């Protein structure tokens, strides 16, 4: 079970991986796009959606529906009484599943819901679809729903039999907000496809969903300031704002197929990671391609990037701090094999074994 199947990012890769571990299990979710439904149908997997999937423009407006309580009601509407085990992958709501005492519930937690535990960071630069001068008014109306979600989230998390955190920062947030202890199973990095490396050299690369809290804007400003070429791969609601900031040195490529993604990673000077992620698979994908990472010193990057060996860190989420770091980076050298070996420590097989071990331990302990 998962929050939704609309986007294509790290959380969705975890959903696919868990489905591969338990291929006979149906996938429950609040909303699923046609692309995801078709994808899992081709893999002979059954996807069960909620009443929310019948709402007008459910996939396109999913992010706005999620501000209110609809997704919680949708998750709680599912009947799991015939199951011995429910496995949820949650970034916001999936852990709200209601199970009977005989059904064990394991939650793989990508992060405690940012929109209601860290709303000021999450909604920074959000327009909410209204003119800028009305933004404060929109936040005023949203705050009661944020408060309601916090009240509901704490007991919902404590109903779960076992929570598995994806990183140290998620583990710490879970302990702080919910008082719940959790073991860690890191996400995995798939090996790169064999691709022809781009002949073009010297560009920096960003590969992320374009939302305001990812702070892609500082990379645009930093590269413009020091005259470095930047390619941006990804889509999202912040794209128009970011395009308005960009000059001739910045190229927006939108969403690209996997083969193109690996080609861009193999050909870049380095990946730039501007956001504070709970874990972040993309830096690992860069290292798997033999490329170093320039990362903001926070979050999951601290668990994957080895400073001076597979990348460097900048201290503040500002264009100045990042541009100084890029200039420092250009005077350094990095070994491609070291980057690849670091990424190999986060393998899909290690992920699979860790998940199965925890499932077996819970079943044996609780039975």
TrEMBL record:
The keyword Transferase applies. One of its GO terms (molecular function) is glycosyltransferase activity. Keywords: Transferase. It holds the Pfam family Glycos_transf_1. Residues 200-345 form the Glycosyl transferase family domain. The keyword Lipid biosynthesis does not apply. InterPro entries: Glyco_trans_1, Glycosyltransferase_grp1. This is Glycosyl transferase group 1. The lineage of its organism: Bacteria, Katanobacteria.
């Amino acid at each position: 079970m998962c929050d939704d199947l609309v986007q294509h990012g790290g959380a969705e890769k975890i959903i696919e991986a868990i489905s591969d571990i338990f291929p006979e299990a149906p996938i429950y979710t609040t909303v699923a796009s046609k692309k995801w439904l078709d994808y899992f149908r081709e893999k002979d997997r059954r996807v069960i959606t909620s009443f929310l999937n019948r709402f007008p423009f459910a996939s396109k407006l999913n992010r706005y529906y999620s501000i209110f309580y609809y997704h919680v009601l949708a998750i709680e509407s599912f009947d799991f009484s015939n199951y011995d085990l429910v496995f949820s992958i949650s970034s916001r709501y999936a852990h709200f599943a209601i199970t009977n005492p005989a059904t064990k519930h394991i939650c793989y937690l990508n992060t405690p819901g940012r929109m209601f535990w860290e709303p000021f960071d999450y909604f920074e630069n959000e327009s909410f679809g209204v003119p800028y001068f009305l933004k404060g008014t929109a936040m005023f109306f949203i705050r009661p729903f944020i408060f309601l979600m916090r009240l509901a989230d704490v007991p919902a998390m404590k109903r779960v039999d076992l929570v598995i955190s994806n990183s140290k920062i998620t583990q710490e947030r879970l302990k702080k907000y919910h008082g719940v202890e959790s073991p860690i199973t890191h996400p995995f990095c798939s090996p790169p496809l064999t691709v022809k490396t781009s002949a073009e050299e010297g560009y920096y690369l960003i590969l992320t969903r374009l939302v305001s809290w990812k702070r892609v804007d500082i990379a645009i400003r930093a590269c413009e300031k020091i005259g470095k070429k930047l390619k941006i791969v990804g889509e999202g609601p912040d794209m128009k704002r970011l395009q308005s900031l960009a000059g001739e040195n910045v190229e927006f490529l939108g969403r690209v197929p996997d083969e193109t993604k690996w080609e861009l990673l193999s050909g870049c000077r380095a990946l730039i990671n501007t956001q504070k992620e709970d874990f972040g698979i993309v830096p690992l994908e860069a290292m798997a391609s033999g490329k170093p990472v320039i990362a903001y010193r926070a979050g999951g990057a601290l668990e994957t990037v080895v400073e001076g060996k597979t990348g460097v860190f900048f201290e503040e989420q500002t264009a100045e701090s990042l541009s100084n770091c890029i200039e420092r980076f250009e005077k350094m050298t990095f070994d491609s094999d070291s980057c690849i070996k670091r990424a190999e420590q986060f393998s899909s097989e290690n992920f699979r074994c860790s998940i199965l071990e925890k499932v077996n331990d819970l079943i044996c302990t609780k039975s």
